[in-house]
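Is this the right way to post structure tokens for a design question? Let me know if I should format differently. Anyway, here goes:
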């Protein structure tokens, strides 16, 4: 039986109420990470369902801490499958789902125990939160400062991180927590399938500390030399890794030579013209048959309501708000055209991850 016009309007109003209040979800997520709730529940793998009062007891917080307010946060996040609620009709207890488990550091000491918790905190710093009410300015004045700069005294996001040690450290931990699981998938599929065969020297453009480059070199013994290329002030504090040379410079001017060039979430924050220049400099740094391996979010051609599409489009608006009003996530075809404009005759996209896509530009 078809829904009546009145029922359709009620559903529409309910949907708009949810959308209008959706800010509650990331803010609740930020709160439970700041309170260390996931660690209190996980307890080295036991993941035993706990009440809000029991969680607070594990956290050794002050006696004034509110179990009822914590439970309200847990109920909201349970509706988004971060926690599993166990309700016997009287008491409510909570354990971590697979989604919630991403907020607890893994047991791999070799990578320092990574989690998505720093990623949550990094996205919700005061300086970033201040930018969101100015998002409409990206529409009204796309050539002007991005919302982040407008909200923070004209300071762009990259300069903000460069001038604040605590924010920069949080950014590094956030990106490391996201990078490790992706790099493991990348090396397990792309590397194992021979994507890096024949590469003697690899350049990581925008490689920050060089940790991802180290992972590549450990996994592919044939690569004898790695060049970690980033801004001089970034590589100045990079740690020493066997076989890795840290080189400071400007990717808009030139890029060190190598058999392959790797970059991860670099192109997304730049305009089409800037991306063409970056890729052209990559082209000039490669031998015949050399290639660029770019790992970027790739938005679908058609918009749907799948979780993947929503996550990608949300990330696109984050870029618009925080980094560049005209930086953007792109479709596969848009990336192909950027490569062709830079001189790369061959292109392919490999969907090895739900968020990042591996883009291969062959010279």
């Amino acid at each position: 039986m078809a829904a009546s016009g009145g029922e359709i309007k009620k559903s529409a109003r309910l949907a708009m109420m949810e959308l209008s209040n959706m800010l509650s979800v990331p803010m609740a997520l930020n709160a439970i990470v700041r309170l260390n709730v996931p660690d209190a529940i996980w307890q080295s793998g036991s993941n035993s369902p706990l009440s809000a009062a029991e969680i607070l007891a594990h956290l050794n917080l002050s006696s004034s801490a509110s179990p009822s307010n914590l439970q309200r946060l847990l109920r909201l996040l349970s509706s988004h499958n971060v926690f599993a609620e166990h309700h016997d009709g009287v008491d409510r207890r909570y354990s971590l789902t697979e989604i919630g488990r991403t907020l607890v550091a893994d047991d791999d000491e070799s990578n320092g125990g990574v989690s998505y918790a720093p990623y949550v905190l990094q996205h919700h710093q005061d300086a970033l939160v201040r930018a969101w009410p100015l998002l409409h300015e990206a529409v009204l004045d796309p050539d002007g400062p991005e919302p982040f700069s407008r909200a923070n005294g004209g300071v762009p996001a990259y300069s903000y991180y460069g001038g604040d040690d605590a924010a920069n450290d949080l950014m590094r931990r956030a990106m490391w927590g996201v990078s490790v699981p992706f790099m493991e998938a990348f090396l397990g599929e792309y590397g194992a399938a021979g994507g890096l065969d024949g590469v003697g020297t690899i350049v990581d453009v925008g490689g920050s500390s060089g940790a991802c480059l180290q992972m590549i070199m450990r996994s592919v013994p044939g690569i004898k030399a790695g060049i970690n290329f980033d801004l001089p002030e970034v590589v100045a504090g990079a740690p020493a890794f066997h076989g890795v040379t840290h080189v400071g410079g400007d990717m808009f001017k030139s890029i060190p030579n190598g058999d392959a060039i790797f970059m991860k979430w670099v192109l997304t924050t730049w305009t089409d013209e800037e991306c063409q220049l970056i890729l052209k400099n990559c082209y000039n740094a490669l031998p015949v048959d050399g290639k660029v391996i770019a790992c970027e979010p790739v938005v679908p051609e058609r918009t749907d309501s799948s979780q993947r599409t929503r996550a990608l489009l949300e990330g696109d608006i984050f870029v618009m708000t925080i980094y560049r009003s005209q930086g953007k996530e792109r479709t596969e075809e848009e990336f192909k055209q950027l490569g062709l404009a830079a001189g790369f005759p061959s292109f392919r996209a490999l969907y090895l991850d739900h968020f990042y896509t591996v883009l291969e530009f062959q010279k």
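Format looks fine. Someone answered above. Worth noting: The chain has two domains: 5-102, 181-362. The two ends are 59 Å apart (CA to CA).
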